Structure formats: structure tokens, C-alpha cells
Amino acid sequence: MERRTFLTSAALGAAASTLAAPALAQTQPEIKWRLASSFPKSLETLFGTGEYITRRVAEATDGKFQIRSFAAGELVPGLQVLDTVQAGTVECGHTVSYYYVGKDPTFGFESTMPFGTNTRQQNAWLYQGGGLELMRDFFRGYNVINFPAGNTGTQMGGWFRKEIKTVDDLKGLKFRIAGYAGRVLTKLGVVPQQLAGSDVYPALEKGTIDGAEWVGPADDEKLGFHKVAPYYYYPGWWEGGPTVTMLVNIAAWEKLPKAYQAIFESACADANLHMSAKYDVLNPPALKRLIGNGAKLRPFSKEIMQACYKAAQDTFAEDAASNPAFKKVFEHWSAFLEEQRSWFRVAEYGFDNFVLNGIPKK
User: Fold this and answer.
1) Is 136 annotated as a binding residue?
2) Which of 16, 45, 86, 214 has its C-alpha lying 20 to 30 A from 151's C-alpha?
3) Is 34 annotated as a binding residue?
């Protein structure tokens, strides 16, 4: 009897929800936004995730809330999305916050920091560990509100025209790299170059730069980097689990009906899972194809990794000493990260280490 009552109530609830959706749509206004992306259309997972969000929003509002996506360069250059949203020229933008560390290094925490969180830890910090509240306080000073809206998983270390075996090989190297890691690598003699995705291949081909990192096999294959820089290094120690973010102009956000706000935020959270799952499906076969087409897979040496780690810690200390906003977030993030690592060393690492290294290969 109790089971029958429960099923009847659930069915009535579902019917009510179905009936309520059109009624809700009829009472809500029609709203049209524009979305500026930092990514070209050729990168179907990065650019496509922004479009995934716009579809989810439109579907959930019965077409009342429409957001039109524009690829990098169509409205504004890919690295100017924050400025455009801040000014209210467009209502929202899909980007990565570490593109803007030149304004303030604190931006980096909302996406990823060198030798920092992996994807799960980053999501834990943002959604449940207090990180999102901290970062929204910071972003408010730029007239925007931020929503996690994608994650690529750990990225690769990039493509190089020659082998990188020692720390000395880094000296004078012109390397396309975004975010905080560029500042870290300058301590080792690297000359960082921040270029939008569409500009990287021609710069590598012409020898204007010596190497470039982008994302991982699925996207790197599309951009063809293996044709002009055959050495493919791992891991991308500067991007253990980078969040791709949706920035929204605060004034535009506050004008939205509460129901639309809830739908928009849910669509971004959905996209966060959608992107990481998609990359985990696409990257393994893409890596096999790249190797089959001549890519030479290489790990960064222990010497290079240790030197980079020390340079990262030195850079963190310098910024914490000179930037109160950075210090506030860094101290919170560091404590959270240490606690996460104490747990991951037990079950997660124990499991991963055995299944990846302890099981005989077929």
C-alpha cells in the first residue's frame, strides 16, 4: 500500500511538473543574450560546450531565454572576453580565468594553478570547499559573476620542435603558454608567449615560437601541432584540472528572473560534467592516432619537474607577500589542497597505482 501511494504521488508530481513548464514559460519574458567565447569553432568540445549551455537554457525555458554564441574573433578576440563582459558589451562569455592573470594573478585560482588540484579536487574546492564564494568576491570587483562551466581534465605538457631533456634546454625557449605558469617558467629562462588558439600553428610552423601547449590529444590533433613540432611532452603540471568558466555581467544577471537564473546555473553545472566526460572519451583514441602519425611522446624529466615545482612555490610566495587578494585565496586553497592530498594518497592513489601499473598489460 505504501509503495502504491508513493508511486501515485510521484506520477502526480511528474504530471504537475510537465504542466507547469509551459505555464511558467508563458509568464516569463523573452530574453536574448550574446555569448562571447574564447575558443574557435574548430574546437568542438571547448566552443561546443558554450553552445551546449545555450541549448539547455533554451530548452528549459521553452525558447524564452535565447543565448547566441560567437566564436573567438567574431565579436572580440578570444583573450578579451573578460573585458567585454565586464563592460556589458555582451552579457556573458565562455573563457578560462587564467587568461587574465596579467590583470591579477588571483584569477588563476578559479581555473587552475601549477601543481594544484586535479579535476575532482577543483570541483570539490569550488562547489563544496568554499572556493566559489571566495572567487565570486574577487570577480565582483570586475563587475562579473562566475560559474564553473567545463573542465578539460589534466592537460598535456605541449609540443616542442626539439627535445627538452634538462633545465638548461628551457633557457631562451619561446613557449606559447597561458596563465600563471608562464610567470613560473620565466624563472627557468623560458620566454612565455600568450597566443589565442588560432595563432599557435602558424607561429610554430614559422619558428616564431619553439613550443606550445594547448589542451590535450583531441584538440591538439585538430590543430595539427604534430606536423610542425613532433615532441609531445607530459604532464601539463600547470593544468591538473582546469575549470572553464562562464562569466556573466552582474547587471545583466540581476535583471534575469529567478527561474532563469536557476536554469542558467544548472546548465553551467551540467556542462562542467559534460566537458570532462567528453574529453575522457575523445583523448585516448586521439593520442593513439597522433603517435601513429609521428608524434614522439616524452615525459618531462624528474629534474625539470622538480625545478618547475620549486619555481612555482617561489612565485606563490612572492605574490602572497605583495597581493592581499592573492594571499587570501592562496591560504584557503593551499589548506584545502593539502587535506585533499592526504585523502587521495590513501584510496585514490592506492587504486590508481595498482590498476595502472600493477596489472600485467594484455
Assistant:
1) no
2) 86
3) no
> Cell match 570541483: residue?
123
Residue 45's nearest CA partner among 352, 302, 297, 286 is 286
Measure CA 156 to chain center: 13
pTM above 0.70, yes or no: yes
Helices (H), the chain: 2-27, 46-60, 81-87, 108-111, 119-127, 131-140, 181-186, 197-206, 217-223, 250-255, 258-292, 302-322, 324-344, 347-353
Q: Which of 211, 260, 317, 294 is nearest to 65 (CA)?
A: 260
Q: Is 213 marked within a binding site?
A: yes
Quote the DSSP letter at residue 357.
I
Peptide bond into 235 cis (omega under 30): yes
C-alpha cell at 216: 590535450
Q: Which strands form 65-70's sheet, in the order they lie side by side?
A: 65-70, 31-37, 92-95, 243-249, 144-151
Are 82 and 102 in contact, with CB atoms under 8 Å apart?
no
Helix (H, G, I), strand (E, B) or coil at 161: coil
Distances (CA, A) of 170 to 113, 191, 210, 231: 20, 9, 10, 14
Each residue's pLDDT tens digit, 60-94: 999 999 999 999 999 999 999 999 999 999 999 99
Q: Was 30 annotated as part of a binding site?
A: no
Residue 28, phi then psi, degrees to nearest 5: -100, 155
Domains of the chain with bracketed CATH: 31-152+241-281 (3.40.190.170)
pLDDT (tens digit per residue) in 153-190: 999 999 999 999 999 999 999 999 988 999 999 999 99
| 253 is annotated as contributing to ligand binding | no
Amino acid residing at 166: T
Cβ proximity of 125 and 117 under 8 Å? yes
Contact predicate 156/235, CB 8 Å: yes
Grid cell locating 309? 615545482
Q: How far apart are CA 80 and CA 196, in angstroms?
A: 10
301-338 pLDDT, tens per residue?
999 999 999 999 999 999 999 999 999 999 999 999 99
